[in-house]
Amino acid sequence: MSALNIKKGSTSHSAYDLKDYHPELERSHTLAVLVDNEAGVLARVIGLFSGRGYNIDSLTVAEIDHKGHRSRITVVTRGTQAVVDQIKAQLGRIVPVHQVIDLTVESTAVERELALFKVNGTGDKRVEALRLADIFRANVVDSTLESFVFEITGTPEKIDAFAELMRPLGLSDVARTGVAALPRGA
């Protein structure tokens, strides 16, 4: 049966029949992937996502064990629990991957992000930008007569809220690190 012949209410299980698709069941998942720190590992992990059409909302990677040559890749992705379980299983089959943890499901996690915001403005807009930065505990890391660069850390939601408030005040550029996350407790 082709996609053109599918009728409303059809019981077909064609890939084109999306009646069982429920986007409201999708949610954000933060995955911590512990890997060997060697050339090509990041490309293999990211290739898994792109090759299967999975989106990455945030990606951070850094070496966490110099002697053991291990790195932590933190990936924020969206999907149903079944899709995320499939991603975890596929990641686990990549040879240099030692552990895959879904921090969203398996534990309560602390998530933080660092961002830099360049805001252009003079007069009242400049004063308002400084006032809001103080409320959000953002630091001024550069200042000219026409602009500020603010540094802010916090949850992705806090970063998004700060960006929305800065837009009408002259927000001209943003750089975000992506999410870094660790499980709470022992």
TrEMBL record:
Coiled coil: none
Top enzyme class: transferase
Catalyzed chemical reaction(s): 2 pyruvate + H(+) = (2S)-2-acetolactate + CO2
Ubl conjugation is among the record's keywords: no
Pfam families hit by this protein: ACT_AHAS_ss, ALS_ss_C
Pathway the protein acts in: Amino-acid biosynthesis; L-valine biosynthesis; L-valine from pyruvate: step 1/4; Amino-acid biosynthesis; L-isoleucine biosynthesis; L-isoleucine from 2-oxobutanoate: step 1/4
Domain ACT: 30-105
UniProt GO cellular component terms: cytosol
Catalytic activity, EC: 2.2.1.6
Keywords: Amino-acid biosynthesis, Branched-chain amino acid biosynthesis, Transferase
Domain of life where this protein originates: Bacteria
GO molecular function: acetolactate synthase activity; acetolactate synthase regulator activity
One GO BP annotation of this record: L-valine biosynthetic process
Function description: Catalyzes the conversion of 2 pyruvate molecules into acetolactate in the first common step of the biosynthetic pathway of the branched-amino acids such as leucine, isoleucine, and valine.
Similarity field: Belongs to the acetolactate synthase small subunit family.
The protein's assembly and partners: Dimer of large and small chains.
Name of the protein in question: Acetolactate synthase small subunit
Gene that specifies this protein: ilvN
